[in-house]
Amino acid sequence: MAGPDPAIPSRTLPRDEGSPVTAPYLQAQGVEVAFGGLRALRDCSFTVDKGKITCLVGPNGAGKTTIFNVITGFLRPNDGHVSFQGRSLDGLRPQAIVAAGIARSFQNLRLFVDLSALDNVMVALPSQAGEEPVGALFRPLHVARAQRAQRERAREALAHVGLADKAGEYVRNLSYGEQKLLTIARLLATGAELLLLDEPASGLSAGALDGIMALLRRLQQEGKTLLVVEHNTRVVQQIADDVLFLHQGHLMAQGTPETIIADPALAEIYFGGAL
Amino acid sequence: MDFLYSYIILAEVYVLLGLSTNLLVGIAGIFSVSQAAVFGVGAYLVAHFLMTETLGFIPALVVAAAACIALNIVVTLPSLRVSGDYFVVTSFGIQLLATAVFTNWTNATGGANGLPGIPPPDLFGLPLESTGQLVILCSVAMAIGGLAFWLLMRAPFGRLLRAIREDELAVAAAGKNVLRAKVSAAALAGAFAGSAGGFYATFLSFVDPSSFDLDASILLLTMVVVGGARTLAGSILGPFLLLALPQVLTLVEIPTSIAAAMRQLIYGVLLILFMLFRPQGLAGEKL
Amino acid sequence: MVWLQLLVNGLVTGAALGVVAISFALIYATTKIFHVAHAGVYTLAGYLAWSLASRGMPDLVSLLVAILCCTVVGALIQHQLYARLERRRATHLVVLIASLGALAVIQNVIAATYSSNILQFPVPWGSRVETFGSVRLTWTQILTVVLSVAAYAGTMWFAHRTILGKQIRAVASNPFLAEITRLRPQRIYVIVVAIGSAIVALPGVLVPLDLGLQPYGGVTPLLTATIAMIAGGVGSITGAFVLAVGIAVLQNLSLLVIPGEWSIGVTFFIFVIFMLFRPTGLFAKAR
Amino acid sequence: MRQVQGVRRALAAVVAGMVLAGMVRPAAAVAETIRLGAILPLTGPGAVVGTQEMRGIQFAFDAVNAKGGVQGNKIDVVFEDNQAKPDVSVLSFNKLVDLQKVPMIFTGYSGPSLAMAPLATRKKILLINAGAQSDKLRNASPYLVNTLPSTGDEVAVMSKYLIQQGKKTAAVLFENDAAGIGGRDDFLDLFPKAGGTVLAQEAVQFGQTDYRPALLKLSAAKPDVLYVVITAGMVPLVQQLKQMNAGFLVAGTTFMADPAAIADPASNGIIHTQVQIDAPPDLSTAFKAKYGDDMDFFARQYYNAAQIMVTVIDKLLTEKKPITGENLHDTLFAIRSFQGLIPMEFKSNTATVPIGINKMENGKDVTLLKVTAE
After folding, report:
1. Chain C residues in contact with D51 (beta carbon < 8 A)
2. pLDDT digit string (tens) for D36-55?
3. How many structural domains does chain C have?
4. Which of D55, D94, D175, D291 should one mutate to test binding to chain B, selecting the residue with the greatest count of B CBs within 10 A?
5. pLDDT in tens, A114-167
6. Would residue C174 count as lying in a domain?
7. Which residue of B has its CA nearest to C263?
8. Is A206 within a domain?
9. Is residue A39 assigned to a domain?
C-alpha cells in the first residue's frame, strides 16, 4: 500500500516561502545541552531524510534520549537549532511540535494505565470537539457525534498495529509487547509524519521483535519517516536505511548500517564503552 | 420538616463543592486544600451584592462564579510550577492567608463578627423565603452542577484530565496543551465553588470566616474521599453521608463531656480505615 | 529597644520551631511521607509530660518519659499505618489523607482525656525572670534555647557521624539503591520516624511549658515548620533550622511595621510568592 | 452505563442517609420529661468555654432532677456540638426544633447566636445566651435573651473608673474574634467619650498564647493603662506581663477572671470589670467534686440561666400553660426579676446586672466597688 492510510490523519506543513525546496527534512545544528557540569550534547549536528528509517545508535549516555527531548521540545538546548521541513522548531512547546508533525514515544512507554487501550489512543487524536469545557458543556450532542467518528479512527489505529481486539482492555491487562504496540498506535493517532521511537524493540521476545520490525517497515511504506533509538544491532541491520552514531553527545559518524558496523573504531567505542 | 430540608440544602451545597474538589483533586490531580477559601469568596461576594442591593441573586451568582474562576486559576498557578507535597504546603498557605483576609479585612467581610442579615435568594425579583422553596432551588442547582460534571467527564475533556493526572509528560507528547487543560479544570472548579458559596450565604443568611477555614477544606476533602473520587455518584454520596454521620453517632451512648471529641475521633478513624481498606471510597475510583 | 527584645523573643520561639522543622525534615527527606500526624505527636508529648509532672514526678523524668512514649507512638504510626499503605501501593494523596486521619485521632483522644481547656504546667520556676541589659527572659525561654540548640547539634552529629545516621542519609538519597545494598528501607523508615518523634517531643514539652497546652494547638507550628523546611531546601537540616528561626524572628519583628493580626497572613503570602519564584529552597544543593 | 448505575446507587444511599439523619434519639421519651436544647462548641478551640457552659447547665438540671424535677417533671437537655460554627448551628437548631421539639435552646458565642436569631424569631423558639457579649446580640431577635450584660456595658463602667483614677491614655490588646473586636470597638468609642485617649491597639489570634510581641509593641506607646479583651489563655498573659515589668496598669473585662490567673502571683494589681455572679461555696465544692474543674464564670452563668428556666417552667406548669417557646418568652418577661446566683432584671432582652470593679491581689479577686449599668 502506497501513501498514507486514509484512516490516519496526516498533516503537512506549508513551507516557508523563502526556504529552498531542498531544505533537509529534519536538521539539527550545533545542539548543546548541559546538565550542571555534564555536557550531554555537544555541537551535535545531523540530518534525517524524509521517508527513511534512521537509527540512532551509540553507547549508554551518548545523548540519544536527550536529542529526542530537544527535538520534541521537552528540553531547551543551551545552544543550537533544530528545523523541520525548513521551519525552525526553536522555542516551540511540545504540543506545537506535535502539531508541526513530529511525535515521540518513550522508552518507559508512559501509557495511561488506568485508561483502556482505546482511550489511550483517543487522548492523542488531534483537535477533538469537546476537548475544552465550553464545547463539552454547551454542545453535548455535537461532541457525542464527533466522538463516534473519533472512536472509529482510534479503532483503526489500534487495528493498524494489530490490537483491534484489545480496544476495551485496560493497559495493565496487556502484555509488554502489546503495550509497546499501543504506544505506536498512540503515536499514529497524533497524525504526525515523523515518528521518534525510543527503543521500540527492547525487552521483546523474538516473535514480537519480528512483528515490530514488520510494523515499522509498513509505516515507512505508508509514507512515515522514522527516527529510532535502538541498541539491538540485528534490528538496526534489518530496518535502518541510515544510521547516526552518537558518542559523548556528538555525532561520530553517519552512514548505512553496513559501513557503521564494519568500522572497527566505532565497534570499539560501542562495545568497549558498553562494557 | 425543616431539619430534613436544611440538611438536604446544606448537603446539596457541599455536593457542588464536592464536584469542585473532585474536578481539581480527584480528576486533574491538583491536590488543593484551599477550596474553602474560594467557596468563601463566592459567599462573601454574593452576600455583598445582595446586602447592598446592587444585584439580584442570579446576576450576583454569575459575578461571584466569574470572580471565583479567576481566583481559582490564580491560586492553582503554583501547582503548575511546583509539584506534589510542595503544592500541598503552598495550598495550606493560601488557605491560611485567605482566613487572615476574611478575618481582618473588616470593611468588606465584617471581620470575625461576620455578615449577618443576608437577604434570602430571589428569582428575578421574587424572593424565596421558605425552606421548602430553597430546597427546590438548591436541588435544581445541584442537578445542573451534576449534569455539567457528567457532560465534562464523558467528553474528551474528561479523558484528557484523567490522562494528565496519570502522566503529564505523555499527554504533552501526544500533542495536547496540558497547561490549558489544567487551567480549565481550575476555572471550572472555581465556578462550582463560587456558586456553592452564593447558595450557602443566602441559605444561612450569615457568613463568617469560620465556615471557610482549613477545617472546612479538610472536611470537603474527606467528603470526596469517603464518597469516592472522580465519579458523580461519589461526589453526591460523600456530603450526604458525612453531614448525616454526626447525627447517627448521637445514637451511640457516650458521656456528654467526651461525646464531641469521640465523634471527631471516629471521624479520624474512618479516614484511616478508608485509606487502608477502600481508597476508592464508597462509589468512586481508586485515588 | 523594643526591637531587641522582639528579636530575642523571635530567636527563642524560632529555636523551638527549628527543632520541629528538623524533626519533620528528617522524616520527610527519608520517607517522603508528608507526616501531618507529626503535629499530633508534638501535642501528645506536652500532655504526657504534664500528666507526670502534675502527679509529682521530677520534671526531668517527665520530659524523658514523654520523649520515650512519643518515640514509640511515632514508630507505631510508621509501622502500622504508613508501611501498610506502602505495601498496598497507596498514592501520596492517600497517605496524606490517612495521616490527617491519624492527626484527628491523636488530637481527639487528647481532648477526650484532658478536656480542651488550656492547661498550665505546675512549674513555678519556669516563669522566673533573668535580666540581660534591656532584655528580659524567663527560665523557660532560656531552657528552650539551650535545649533546642543542643537538639540541633545532636541531630547534625547523629546524621553525619553515626553509622545509623549515614544509613538513613543513604536511604533518603536513593531508597532503591539502598534496598539492593540490603539496608532495608522499611526498617530504616520506622527508625527515622521514631527518632523524629523523639526530637519533636522536646519542643512539644518546652513550648507548652511557656505557653500552655491545647489539644488542637500543634497544626500551626507544624505548618510553619514545614514552610521552613521547604524554604530551607528539603534534605538540609541546617536549612530547616535556620529558616525556622528566621521566620519566627521575622514574625516578631514584622509587628513593628504591620498590625499583628496580619503577621500569619503575611508569612504565608511571602511563602506562596517564594514558591512561585524559587521552589527548590534557599539551601538546596544544585542537582 | 457504570456511571448511571453509580448515580442510582448514590441516590439510594442519599435516601438512606436522610433516614439515618432522621433517626436521632427516637421520640419515645417518658411523657413527663421536658426536653430543652443547648447548642454549644464542644469540640475545636471554642470547646474550652463550651464544655464549662455545658457542665453548668447539666449540673443545674441534675440537681433539679435529683429532687424529683419541676413539679414532678424531669428536665432533659439535648446538647449539640456546633464547633462554634454558624452553619452547624443552623443545622443543629433545626434538628432540635423539628425532631426533639424543644421550645428553648441555650446558646453561647456571638456568631452562632446571630446566625440562629432569625430562625428563632420565625419559629418562636426562645434562645438563652449566657456567654456571648457582642453588642449585636442586644437587638438580634425578640426571642434572643441575654442573661449577662454586653461588653459595651462593662467597657462604659471601666472607662469612667479609669478616668477617675487619672489614667487618661490607653492601649488595647484584643482577641481577633467577635468577642475581642466587639470589646475593642466599644473601648475605642467609650474611652474617648469618658475623656481618655487610645494610643495603640494590637490583635492576637484566639488561643495563640504568645502575647510577647503584641505586648512589647503596645508598651512602646507608653500608655497609662493596657486594656485587655481576651477570652482564653490568661495565665500566659499575666506571666508575660510580669516578665516585661511594664509600668502601666492592666485592666480588662469579666474574661480576665480566670481562677488560675488570679491564683498566679504574676496577676497582682490587675483590675477588671466583673459581671456579678457568685456561686455559694458548697455549690462550687460540689461542682469541683463532680467535674474536677473549678466552677468558673461560664459554668456559673449557665447554671444561673438554667435556674431561670426552671423558675419560668415552674410558673408555666402552675398556670397549666403548654411549654412552648412563645409562652416561655412571655412568662420570662412577666416574671422579669430573678433571684438566681445574682439578682437580675429584664428591662430589655439583655439583663440588667450589677457590674463590679475587681482587683487581683495575692491570689484573690477583691471587689473594689459595684455599679449597675443602665
Report:
1. 115-117
2. 999 998 876 677 788 889 99
3. 1
4. D94
5. 899 999 999 999 988 889 999 999 999 999 999 999 999 999 999 999 999 999
6. yes
7. B100
8. yes
9. yes
Below-50 pLDDT ranges, chain B: none
User: Helix, strand or coil for residue A258?
Assistant: helix
Q: Is B275 close to C101, i.e. CB distance below 8 A? A: yes
Cβ atoms of A53 and A239 closer than 8 Å: yes
The third-level CATH classification (topology) of the domain covering B2-277 is: ABC transporter involved in vitamin B12 uptake, BtuC (1.10.3470)
What ipTM goes with this model?
Answer: 0.79
**Residue A155 domain-assigned?**
no
pLDDT of residue B69: 95
Domain D151-276+355-372 bears CATH identifier 3.40.50.2300:
yes
* CB within 8 Å of B137: residues ≥ 6 apart: B121, B123, B128, B199
Pairwise CA distance, residues A216 & A193, whole Å: 13
Closest CA to A11 of A90, A105, A126, A123: A126
**B260/D42 touch (CB, cutoff 8 Å), yes or no:** yes
Nearest CA of chain D to the CA of C148: how many Å? 18
d(CA B25, CA B195) in angstroms, rounded, equals: 19
Q: Which residues contact D357 (CB under 8 A, 6 or more apart)?
A: D157, D158, D161, D271, D272, D273, D274, D367, D368, D369, D370, D371
The model's pTM is 0.83
Would an 8 Å CB–CB cutoff place B263 in contact with chain A?
no
Topology (CATH) of D31-148+279-341: Rossmann fold (3.40.50)
Q: How many CB atoms lie within 10 A of CB B172?
A: 21
Number of domains in chain A: 1
Residue B260 CA: distances (Å) to CA of A202, B188, D59, D82: 60, 36, 18, 10
CA dist., res. A223 & res. A217, Å (int): 10
Q: How far apart are CA B231 and CA B233, in angstroms?
A: 5
The end-to-end CA distance of chain D, in Å, is 70
**Residue from B27, B150, B171 to probe the interface with A (highest A Cβ count within 10 Å):** B171
With cut-offs at 50, 70 and 90, classify the pLDDT of residue A221: very high
- Is A36 inside a domain boundary? yes
From chain A, the residues in CB contact with B177 under 8 A are 93, 95
Full residue range of the structural domain in which residue A243 is found: 26-101+192-274
Task: For B103, name the nearest residue in chain C, comparing CA atoms only.
Answer: C261
The residue extents of the domains of chain D are 31-148+279-341, 151-276+355-372
Cell numbers of C105, please? 485521632
Containing domain of residue C61, as a range? 2-277
A203 sits in the region (left: phi over 0; alpha: psi -120 to 50; else beta) called left
- What's the rounded Cα separation, in Å, for the pair D149 and D130? 9
Where residue C162 sits, what CATH number does that domain have? 1.10.3470
Structural domain includes residue C127: yes
Please provide the DSSP assignment of C99-154 as one string: HHHHHHHHHHHHHHHH-SSPB----GGGG-EEEETTEEEEHHHHHHHHHHHHHHHH
To which residue does cell 523594643 refer? C2
pLDDT in tens, A231-269: 888 889 999 999 999 998 899 899 998 888 888 888 788
Q: Tell me which residue in B88, B103, B265 faces C105 most closely, judged by beta carbons.
A: B265
pLDDT value for B189:
95
C285 part of a folded domain: no
The alpha carbon of residue D252 is apart from the nearest alpha carbon of chain B, in Å, by: 20
Q: Say if B211 is an interface residue toward chain D (CB within 8 Å).
A: yes
Buried b (16+ CB within 10 A) or exposed e, C149-177: eebbeebeebbeeeeebebbbbbbeebee
Which residue's C-alpha cell is 534496598?
C179
Contacts of B169 in chain A (CB under 8 A): 74, 106, 110
Residues of D at the C interface, defined by Cβ within 8 angstroms: 43-45, 47-48, 51, 176, 202-205, 207, 209-210, 212-214, 216-217, 219-220, 232-233, 235-236, 239, 242-245, 260, 266, 293
